[in-house]
Amino acid sequence: MQTISSFLFILPFCCGLLGLLLAVILFWINKGNWLAARLLGGVVTAISIPLIENALYLTSFYQTYPFLYRLLSAASFCIGPLSYLYVRTMVTQGFRLKRTDALFFLPAILYQLHRIPFSLLTNTEKLQVVERALQETKNVAAEPEGWLPVGWVALFRIVVGISFIIAQFVLLSKWKKQLALALEPGLIEKNAENIRWLNWFTGVLIFSYALLLLETLLHLGSNITLGPIIVLTICLSVLFIAFYLFTRPVILYGMAGLIP
What whole-number distance in Å separates Cα of residue 214 and Cα of residue 241? Predict the structure, then answer.
């Protein structure tokens, strides 16, 4: 049992640190489209923060610092928006965002508003909430400490993510059709590696969110403990992105030629 507990701490914690390291590299790298690299770094950061938070549930960290409990959990609501903006920037070869793009992050703001009741508690009261939540893993996923009904936040988080990833898939599909009609010869061949990467990136996120939805529904609606499987799913997403970028760094240079 101790070995399993150690593994469930070490895996997400190390994957989270790996993701943050990769995000730092992406943020400072400048190989053509710096905005796309930074948006991808944002995606990895938004995935990595919940991993580290989940790993700390298996320690006494939140009992020692209860005010830090879920402090950065709003990052998970930014995965979908940042991923969509990354793909849009890649296919349009954009170098700036629109002002209206800020609206994509309203769910993250709403989540922070949901947490106001917890934020207003005293440190002793926060500790009591943390201890109650950590007594049963289902309580961690249900997030009963805010304004929204128990279990709604977990589902809301996944629905927001899936919505943006579906929009990303539609955007990518339309763009590939436009690319096939491009007049410049060899355009698809020049960008084959980037197209393959965007397909894999989008596909892995769609699969991960679909799996997370199923796992969360089972986790909240039964006595089945799927917390470790949920964490493993998120870990695999980080490992996939890291592996692909380290083995195919050419995708960081952006698209070649004038993309329609």
Answer: 22
Name the percent of the chain in helix, strand, coil, to the closest 5: 80, 0, 20
Hunting for tokens 């809301």 — which residue is that? 156
In the chain, the amino acid numbered 167 is A
pTM of the model: 0.89
**Cα–Cα separations (whole angstroms), residue 110 to 98, 107, 114, 150, 162:** 21, 5, 6, 16, 17
How many Å apart are CA 51 and CA 49, to the nearest integer? 5
Nearest to 176 by CA among 197, 206, 151: 197
CA-CA distances (angstroms) from residue 129 to 124, 125, 146, 196, 250?
A: 9, 6, 11, 46, 47
Question: Which residue type sits at 175?
Answer: W
Task: Judge whether 140 and 133 are in contact, CB under 8 Å.
Answer: yes
CA distance linking residue 191 with residue 165, whole number of Å: 22
Q: Are 200 and 244 within 8 A, CB to CB?
A: yes
Instruction: Tell me how far apart the alpha carbons of residues 142 and 16 are, in angstroms, rounded to a whole number.
Output: 22
pLDDT, tens digit (0-9, with 9 covering 90-100), for 148-181: 777 788 889 999 999 999 999 999 998 888 777 7
10-residue mean pLDDT series, the chain (260 residues) = 64 92 86 82 94 87 91 93 95 87 95 91 90 71 76 87 95 84 67 88 91 78 67 88 88 65
